[in-house]
Amino acid sequence: MSPSTDTDGLSGRKLRERFPLAALIFERLVLSIVLLFAVSLLIFVGLQALPGDFASTYLGQSATPQAIANIRDQLGLNQPLLSRYLSWLGHAMVGDFGTSWASQNSVGEQIGLRLGNSLFLAGFAALISVPLAVGLGMLSVHFRNRLPDKIINIVSLAAISLPEFFIGYLLIMFFAVKFGVATFPATVYAEMSLYDRLQAIALPTATLVLVVLAHMMRMTRAAILSVMSSAYMETAELKGLSAFRSIVRHAAPNALAPIINVVALNLAYLVVGVVVVEVVFVYPGMGQYMVDAVTVRDMPVVQACGLIFAAVYILLNMVADILAIVANPRLRHPR
């Protein structure tokens, strides 16, 4: 091994020891970028392997082989797979997702219109579900093994066991059809007031909240219970602190790292998991846009939506890792 290599290794180790937080954040950032490139390749190759063809779907059953060949040549589908992937990736890196094959509209412009709707729906669901999940988790710990705890656990298990589309259809049947107190379908547009928009997304928001609330609440409860068995919690109780106060002041802050991870994972699910909910409620977001494109094999749209969903999911996971490291100093010095 050359002296320069030894010097580089030592300097890298010294920088890591001197700035452990910055080094870990840099590692997570590099890993996220590599993972996003890998996902982009998986999305592109996976879509090419799907059965069906846009030219045949677009032209219909009466299309001649020559017409199908002309469409494929026009769209560049006869080019090698690698060159098509590199061309798509290069344009996607600068925000150019191409043109929709079906509608001839700019994919980037359509995503710009619909991504805001999806983020608004997911963000409002998160605004309700996160504090509610953390509060119910602490309440469940406070009444551990008593009636409130058992009721919360039974309801959360029931919510986890039901798929989101089934919850959505139940809410539609009762609140939109039977009682007529909610709006269906969940149609929103740019000129709507905030109040009208919130009314329109009430049912899809409730569906998303019920889907993620139970998991976040149960994981929050488990994290706090794990901390409750620590010696310093026994000391706090011996000093005369009430059970609920010791949970709020000592247990919850020390369980912050796993709670942050759970919340971030569920926020990622809220953004990515809106696909099913948007289809059920006919909500004009990214999920509905992607499903419509899948039905006609509109690959530029499907690839762009898949890449954006993957980027959001990876970004939120990276943020969760960084926040967990900041919240728990022990993670900065792994043994």
| Shape assignment | globular
Strand content: under 5%
Our measurement of the CA-to-CA distance between the termini, rounded to an integer number of angstroms, reads: 27 Å
Helix content range of the residues, please?
over 70%
Helix/strand class: mainly alpha
Q: What do the pLDDT scores average to?
A: 78
User: What's the helix-strand series?
Assistant: HHHHHHHHHHHHHHHH
Total helical segments: 16
Find the count of extended strands (DSSP E, 2+ residues): 0
Low-confidence segments: none
Write the layout of secondary structure elements.
Elements: H1 3-18, H2 20-49, H3 54-59, H4 65-75, H5 81-93, H6 107-142, H7 147-161, H8 164-178, H9 194-200, H10 202-228, H11 231-238, H12 243-254, H13 256-272, H14 274-281, H15 286-295, H16 299-327
Helix pairs in contact: 1-2, 2-16, 6-7, 6-10, 6-12, 6-13, 7-10, 8-10, 8-14, 10-12, 10-13, 10-14, 13-16, 14-15, 15-16
Structural description of this entry:
The protein contains 16 helices and no strands. With 335 residues, the protein is an all-alpha fold. Helix 6 packs antiparallel against helix 13 and helix 15 (286-295) runs antiparallel to helix 16 (299-327). The chain is globular. The two termini are 27 Å apart. The mean pLDDT is 78.
Structural features:
335 residues; mainly alpha; globular; single chain
Short description, anyone?
This protein has 335 residues and is an all-alpha fold. The protein has 16 helices and no strands.
